[in-house]
Each structure stands twice: as structure tokens, then as C-alpha cells.
Amino acid sequence: MSTLTIAWIALPLFVGFSIYLFPRLDRYLALGVALASAGYASYLFVAQSTLTLPLLDSFGVTLIADEMSAFFIVTNALVTSAVIIYCWHTNKTAFFFTQMIILHGCVNAAFVCADFISLYVALEVISIAAFLLIAYPRTNRSIWVGLRYLLISNVAMLFYLMGAGLVYQANYSFAYEGLSNAPIEAIALIFLGLLSKGGIFVSGLWLPLTHSESETPVSALLSGVVVKAGVFPLMRFALMVPEVDPIVRIFGVGTAVLGVGYAVFEKDTKRMLAFHTISQLGFVLAAPEVGGFYGLTHGLVKSALFLIAGTLPSRNLKELHHKPINTSIWIALVIASFSISGFPLLSGFGAKVLTMKNLLPWQVIGMNIAALGTAISFAKFIFLPHNPQGEGNVKPSFWLAMIILIGGLILANAVYYEAYTVKNIVKPLVTIALGWLAYFLIFKRLAIKLPRMLEQFDHLIGLMSLMLLLLFGMVFA
């Protein structure tokens, strides 16, 4: 098992660089790596055991692979496979697939790290690979968006690295468990780095511009899996160190409400999806012990939604009401929107029920508001006009990607089939009905455009400073 794990971690890097030797096989090699990750995740699910693999005992460098890791690894595998197939008949070069598969491997590494220094290396390589994918079109706009992402990531990781150094100074080890004996400055600095990297609360306001301005397959990768590399360690901390669990849950609720608060007013399809990524990451953090299942359903549905949004005739929701879309695309859009809203028969329903059952009493009101906001937001997609001759021609590879992602949403129902009771079914149906009612009576008629001042680069750096003060206050308390 140990040898298998090390081989699985090294495989994406080996294959990624080998693609240059065999550029005609780029798509096949990349897809093979993603399928290998799916196989490894399946093994973890079947084994039902935790692998602890010490690499450098004296520094606390350790890998941990368990069921929680498996949920995120299989998400990465399915999303990457779908995006590779989506790009199969495009003019993407071997460079694109090399960066994609290196990104895939480093995201996987972040899901099995159990020490601060290995995580730092993985997150830094993720930043570089993501930057190269964002800037791939080589336009002035894409290069600026990529550089903005890279600079924010580097500032966040600088805070993180200082915190990791303080943990080592206190414990002579980089292991996650050292967080319990670390000074409060270390906890605040590490959390600031990961919250910013993961797109959480106000320090995640870099995310809407980055995800909405990237190419469609890159947006699907970023929202589906990359941001979770920053969120996953926070879940680990909450489970390993009970003292930080309340902090993680507070940011979960705050992020879910903040993201959906922006999304209900947004009229741009890709920006609305990006704000919902922020909100849904809040759901993942609100109940860390079951966040793996929510992470899986969100990764599949958000990647599907970004790929579908890339086929629509316009990004402007008002224009889409005057341009009926093709009915087949609309059906895929509705299925994904139903899942994220928590409609039964799709795994988003089970994930929401499981999350709500594991909330603390003080979290319930905030998370129900966020669930209502989700139903309001996705009513914008569900009630778009459509007809069989509508706009939107897609290639067969698009439908193969949809089969993987939407098929995954249906199959993942089996993870928590106990959710299907009358009581559990009625509550989300009422929430969705209220959300649709609020959409038709209020939000459809509103034309409020929220200011984007806080998304400017200099303000994002300022928000990190405010977040640091907030974290110090929370840790002191």
C-alpha cells in the first residue's frame, strides 16, 4: 500500500513531463493518470482503513490517506477526466495537458499531506500550474488575470509559511498535530494563508474575477477541484485539533451566506457560478466531519455548470431571456441546477441533508438562509426559455463530459441513501419552492448591481490584513 501510494503521487509528474516526448499521446496519457487516481480512490473506499506513511520522521513529514481523502481524490479524478474529454477535439497543445496533469497531481498531494511543509510545496506548484493554465490564451487580459491570481496566492502563502515556521519552532515538527501546541500567531497566519488560497469569506473575493475570466475548461478545474486544495487542510485541522473546530465552522457559515448574498444579485452567468463556489465551500467547512461528500457533489456539479455556461449564447442572464437555448443543453443545465439546490434523486440532496444533520444549533439559521439563496440563484437557470432549435451547438465530447459529471451526481446518491425519508424530502422541496417564489416576486425584477470595489487587487491585499486581525481576535477568544 505504501509503495502504491508513492507511485500514485509520482505518476502525474512523470507522465506530465513525458507528454513532451510523446506529444501525439498527450490526451491519452493525461486521461490515464486521471483514471489511475479514480482507481486509487476506489481502493481507499473499499479498504476502509487509514494509511499513515511517515516520510521524514525527524521533521514530521507524513502522508495520511483515508476516506475523507478518497472523496476529494475521486472528485479530482472525475473532474479532470471530464475536462480532458471536453478538450479532446480542440486545438489545445501538449503544454496545456502537461500543466493540467501536473496540477492534478499536486492537488492530489494536498489531499494526502499531513504536514505543513509538504502542503506548502504542493500549494505553490498548484499556483504556478494554475497560472499557466489561466494565461494559456496569451491575451493581455488572461495574462493579467493569471498574474493577479499568482500574486494573491504568493502573498497568502507567505503568511502561511511564517505560520508553519512558528509551528516548527514550537514542536520541532511540521506535523499538523503541532497546531495544538503552536502560538496563536501561527494559527492565525496559517489560517489566513489557507482561507485566502481556498477562496473563503472576504479573503476569497479574488475568486469571481479569476474563475469567470478563465477559459471554460480552466474555470471548471478551478471551481471543481483547485480551490479545495486550500479547504481540505482546514477540515483536517478541525478534526485533529478540536480547539480550531469552532473557527472553521464560523468561517463555513460566514462564507456560505456571503457567497450566496452576492450570487442572488449577479446577472452574469459565470460570475454567479463563481460566487456560488464561495458559498458552497462554506457548506463544506460548516460540518467538517462530512465535508468530503459535499466536496464531491459540489466538484461534479460546479464543473458541469461551468462547462454548460461555456456553451450558452451569452453570459448575460437578461439577454438569455430573449435567446432561447437548445432544449438538450437546458435539460443538462436544469439537472445540475436541481442537484446544487438539493432536489431529491441527485446527490446534492443527500449531501445537503447530511451537512444539515451535522450542524451545531447556532449554525442552522445561517445555513438555511444560504440554502434558500441557492434555490433563488439557480431559478435563474431553471426558468430560462428553450426550444429544440435554440442556440447552442456542442461537440460530442461535451456530452461525454456531461455523462461523467451528471452520471457521477446520480451514482453518488448511494453514499447517503438513508437521506430518503419523507421528512428529509419535504424540507428541501419547501426550501426550493420558497426560493422560486422569492425569485419571481422579488429578485427577477431587481436590477441591483453590487459594487466590485472589494475585488480590486489592492483592496484584496487590504482585506487579508483585516482577516488577520479578525483571526487574531478569534484565536485569542
Number of helices, counting only DSSP H or I runs of 4 residues or more:
20
Low-pLDDT parts are none
Order of helices and strands: HHEEHHHHHHHHHHHHEHHHEHHH
> How confident overall, as mean pLDDT?
93
Q: Report the strand count.
A: 4
Order of strands, main sheet, comes to 1-2
What is the global morphology? globular
In whole angstroms, how far apart are the ends? 43 Å
The largest sheet is: 2 strands, antiparallel
Transmembrane segments: 6-22, 29-48, 68-87, 94-111, 117-137, 149-168, 188-209, 221-241, 247-265, 272-294, 329-350, 362-384, 396-417, 429-447, 459-476
Subcellular location: Cell membrane; Membrane
Pfam families: Proton_antipo_M
Keywords: Cell membrane, Membrane, Transmembrane, Transmembrane helix, Ubiquinone
Q: Could you walk me through the main structural features you see in this protein, from its secondary elements to its overall organization?
A:
It is a single chain. Helices cover 71% and strands 3% of the residues. It has helices at residues 2-18, 26-47, 67-86, 94-112, 116-134, 140-171, 184-198, 207-213, 216-226, 228-240, 245-263, 269-286, 291-309, 317-320, 327-341, 347-357, 364-382, 396-411, 422-443, 457-476; strands at residues 51-56, 61-65, 325-326, 386-387. Helix 6 packs across helix 8 (207-213). The model has no long low-confidence stretch (mean pLDDT 93). Strand 1 and strand 2 (61-65) form a beta hairpin. With 477 residues, the chain is mainly alpha-helical. Strands 1-2 form a two-stranded antiparallel sheet. It contains 20 helices and 4 strands. It has one domain.
